[in-house]
Amino acid sequence: MVEIQKAVYDDICQTLGEKEAECGGILGARMGEPISKFYFDHSGISTPDAYTPDYETINEILEEWAEDGMQMVGIIHSHGNEGNFPSCCDLYYCEQILRNNPSLKEFLLPIVTLAPFSIHVYRVSFFQKLRISKDNLLII
Ligand SMILES: [Zn+2]
């Protein structure tokens, strides 16, 4: 079970839930605590079949979060009707993040579907190969 604060969930509904598909943002938490931060990636690149995070801006946000003891625990983005499972591109950038941050044991890669609005949570870890498992979201 992945716990998320209600205010953060609402923020996701009001940003990703109301935009075109393939928009995204990052999720933050203190180690071992529920998700308590969301940054909507206004400047990320959205095309009809992929979302590419604006890493430069995200890195600045992460520095601010770090001062507050928060770290990035996942990247969330929306899909059109093509499905609720991460694409090969999604898994590829997730693998890069895990390889580049060995202290990160796992990463969340939730997919938002828009009609109807739903968040499908995946946990991704990398140890010799990429492992992915589905989980549920608990709004607290
Ligand atoms: Zn995707």
- What CATH architecture would you give? 3-Layer(aba) Sandwich
Distance between the termini: 11 Å
Tell me the CATH topology: Cytidine Deaminase, domain 2
Number of E strands: 11
Helix-and-strand structural type:
alpha+beta
- Sheet with most strands: 7 strands, mixed
The CATH superfamily label reads Cytidine Deaminase, domain 2
Model description:
The protein has a single domain (2-139), classed as Cytidine Deaminase, domain 2, CATH 3.40.140. Helix content is 26%, strand content 39%. It has helices at residues 6-15, 55-67, 88-100; strands at 2-4, 24-29, 37-40, 45-47, 50-52, 71-79, 107-108, 111-114, 117-127, 129-135, 137-139. The strands form three sheets. Strands 2, 3, 6, 7, 8, 9 and 10 form a seven-stranded mixed beta sheet that branches. A two-stranded parallel ribbon has the order 1-11. Strands 4-5 form a two-stranded antiparallel sheet. The termini are close together. The structure holds zinc ion. Zinc ion is lined by residues 51, 77, 79, 86-87, 90.
